[in-house]
Amino acid sequence: MNPWFTFCLPEDKKQTLEKAKKLEWITLFFLLTIVAVMYFAMGSSQAMKTALLEDILSMLPPVVFLVAIRFHDREANTQFPYGYRRALLLAFLAAAVAVLGLGVYIFYDSAATLFRQEHPTLGHMNLFGWFVWSGWVMMAALVYSMIAPVILGRIKLRYAKELHEKTLYADATMNKADWITAATGVAGIIGIGFGLWWADAVAALVISTSILKDGFGNVRTAASDLMDQRPVEVASGKPLKIEERITDALLQFPGIIDANVRIREEGQLLTGEAFVVIDTTESLVEQLQKMSERASNLDWRVQNLIVVPVKKSRKKETNLQGASK
Amino acid sequence: MSASCQTPPVAPRLPKLSVFIFLVLLLGTACDRFPRDPRNSLQDIANSGVMHAGATENPPWVVRRAFGGPDGVEVQLLEQFAAELGVELVWHWAGMKELCTALTQFELDLAVGGFTKNHPCKSEIALTVPYHTSYDAVGVPTDQPPMLELDGLTVAARRTSGLSEPLEDRGARVTLVNSLPRGEIAVAATDWELNVMNFTLTGIQLKKHEHVFAVAPGENALIMRLESSLRRQTHHGEIRKFLLQGVLR
Fold first, then answer.
1. Is B27 an 8 Å CB contact of chain A?
2. Which pLDDT value is given to residue A225?
């Protein structure tokens, strides 16, 4: 236990996080119903199979989020002195790798179907005693599969930005893109209806590329975060440039000659070290404490910045981002 | 204190979505010839007036008569279908494997021969929705009470029934016979056979058979038309009546 260095979310963010958790449960519920509906409507359509797999896959991020969120607030202990904030990142990486792997498989499967010139057969389906073309049932299932995720995805996107939460963001973007998958699937089935046997496999191929893109993007994000890249904007991936702002703020303190800051992401929060050159030793401890507090006041995400006084020569040895002057 | 995130606004997509749904609905109402055949099978059958059907012998579904003509449950169903289309039915005898190959290469329009839903070729060819479901069951002579378990019981089964394993799995001792013995011991056979032979069904079901017709893959207009015809013809349990009358055995 380390009473000096604990991370905690501001009260308003805690509330947003609770809302996000609730939304993830709702998402999971809808995804389960979607998977059930899609499974019963699937038939022999390749595009439907692919869309179903994507729907199953899109359960991973919410599950990962909900599992990791149980751990991330645990206090640091002797065994894990930096706390559990990174559980989320680790889980996110695992989920991303799974999505990427399945994307590769589905791409191969669809391409092989196309190559073998397999003609998909869609006959009648007995829908509670109603004898209809299974294509209509599939299209209805696909349309159902796009409604809830698109709406939920939009709300979650807002929360993800507010909370600086990458897993939630990845989940929201996957949900939001779900309508493209569903629409592509519908296009494939309409194609079959018009006697274009290849339309279905081509649709599946298109969907698989979207899964591949999701997987690849998520793996890259997760890997970069585990490598402690500088904090970036959740949505755009652009640097937050928080280092510059902290450096500028620190340079305002009396007696500061130079400052150099490095920041990394710790789950939703940001932390790191500031190296400062001070020309006085008068009340040094208070000064350093104030500097850390000043940095935390700049952005709710910045917490526990460690301010280290260094000799002037140190600057030449370090080559850190956010260095100024 | 909090720096709000600056992100580009997301372009609204819902209007596009609703337009898309509208188009789908429009399409649904606009097409009468839907779905269509990629290889125009149904159209070609109508144009040429000939439907090429493959058949393999598998009583009572397909039976080869003494002079080579086909008969049986499925043959009669298919003849009715051809009559509905107003076309001539040309029969081609072949083995099961050959029928599958011919269908995948679009040499035949459709095929019969006791195909079931779990046929080994199911991924290469098209199968209709099941038009009849039968069960392999255990029956006892009418003077014996029907039992609930087979443990240690001797059950007779025909040599080609493929029921030895499911029977043994339930603890039965299997006696393989050439033809089912009447009124002596418990026997395993299809439910309608047991009915015809006056056995009492025990409620022990060993295997389910969902009977289908085979069609050239992806010829969705043809398969839709065939399924509608089969449904009309079998709607009121005609197949069962057919089998129970025993006319085909």
1. yes
2. 84
Q: Do A121 and B215 touch (CB under 8 A)?
A: yes
CA dihedral for A124, A126, A127, A130, sign (positive or negative): positive
How many Å apart are CA A108 and CA A121, to the nearest integer? 21
Taking CB atoms and an 8 Å limit, are B5 and A125 in contact across chains? no
CB B217 within 8 A of CB B104: yes
Closest CA relative to residue A267, chosen from A95, A87, A71 = A87
The Cα-based distances of B76 to A67, A82, B208 in angstroms read: 60, 78, 23
- A63-77, A300-314, B16-30: least confident range: B16-30
* pTM to 2 decimal places: 0.79
d(CA A64, CA B200) in angstroms, rounded, equals 56
End-to-end CA distance of chain B: 89
C-alpha pair distances (Å), B106 with each of A23, A132, A193, A321: 51, 25, 19, 67
Please determine, for the modelled complex, whether the ipTM score is greater than 0.90. Answer: no
Paired strand residues for B175: B156
Backbone angles phi, psi at A313, to 5 degrees: -60, -20
Measured between beta carbons, which residues in chain A are less than 8 angstroms from residue B227?
123-124, 131
Give the phi and the psi of residue A86 in degrees, each rounded to 5: -85, -5
CA distance A129 to A309: 79
3-class secondary structure for A262-310?
A: EEEEECCEEEEEEEEEECCCCCHHHHHHHHHHHHHHHCCCECCCEEEEC
* pLDDT top residue among A53 and A2: A53
Q: Do A234 and B34 touch (CB under 8 A)?
A: no
Q: Would the CB atoms of B38 and A234 count as touching at under 8 Å? A: no
